[in-house]
Amino acid sequence: MKKLIAGNWKLNGNFAMAQAFDMAMMDTVTNYNHVDWLICAPFPYIPSLENCIRGAQDCSAHQEGAYTGEISADMLADIGCDYCIDGHSERRAMHGETDEVVKEKAARVLDSGMTAIICVGETLSEREAGNELDVVETQIKKSLPSNSSAQNTVIAYEPVWAIGTGRAATADDVLKMHAHIRQLLKSTLASGTEMRILYGGSVKPSNASELMNLDNVDGALIGGASLKSEDFIAIGAAVIK
After folding, report:
1. Which of 77, 86, 103, 237 is the most buried if burial means most Cβ atoms within 10 Å?
2. In the chain, what is the greatest distance between 2 CA atoms, to the nearest angstrom?
3. Which residue, among 158, 47, 43, 22, has the nearest Cα to 92 in the 3D structure?
4. Nearest one of 90, 110, 98 to 142, comparing CA atoms
5. Digit-coded pLDDT (tens) for 190-229
């Protein structure tokens, strides 16, 4: 199983950036083909990415209808998306998305033929209270559609306190949480042993080698460092072949 190096541009970028980034990826996907390269760009720039796997940052929980401003999973699949992020902590916190909403969106993603990247993670207060394992376990159990499998679903563990703060979890933190998630997936799904678990939260070239080669870390969901192609490429290059 190849590791997945996924970039989440969030509300950043423009057409020129997308074109330049795509050109930088042209040789990268050949030279570093031991990993899968994914970019989740803002909706207008998704079609500009031709040299890596295309993904979206969110989708509607609805398939069609009078929902002004929303974009369905089927529409994203129609323009060539293979992945869609669901339940990012920013969506959960700023848009009030519950586990139930995340599950509904993920189900739409699976129905469209795309792969869902379901994000989970604890806040600083939850970690300080010692509840991080229970919080993440509950999020996974409530957010996974019933037809989730290693072939159509990825789990992204992103400790909320480490997203965009420059503060990454320690190797021990990641090992403990990813081992817990793996055990949960193995006990819940027939293909739980093979399901990819990504780490996200201030992943950058300086810590990529340590984080990306830990047990049960099957790639990264990268925010700020995915905005510069050289940083994004360096993170994937740090994965041991």
Report:
1. 86
2. 48
3. 158
4. 98
5. 999 999 999 998 899 999 999 999 999 999 999 999 999 9
Residue 241: per-residue pLDDT: 82
pLDDT of residue 80: 97
Catalytic residue selected from 88, 90, 122, 180: 88
100 as an active site residue: the answer is no
The CATH class that applies to domain 3-237 reads alpha beta
Q: DSSP for 52-97?
A: SEEEES---S-SSSS-TT---HHHHHHTT--EEEE--HHHHHHS--
37 closest CA partner among 17, 77, 7 = 7
Q: Is 70 a catalytic residue?
A: no
Residue of 168, 179, 102 whose CA lies nearest to 140: 102
Given the residues 122, 126, 132, 158, select the one marked as catalytic: 158
CA pair distance 222, 162, nearest whole angstrom: 12
SS3 category, 226: helix
Task: Give the Cα separation of 127 and 170 in Å (integer).
Answer: 13
Q: Is the pTM of this model over 0.85?
A: yes
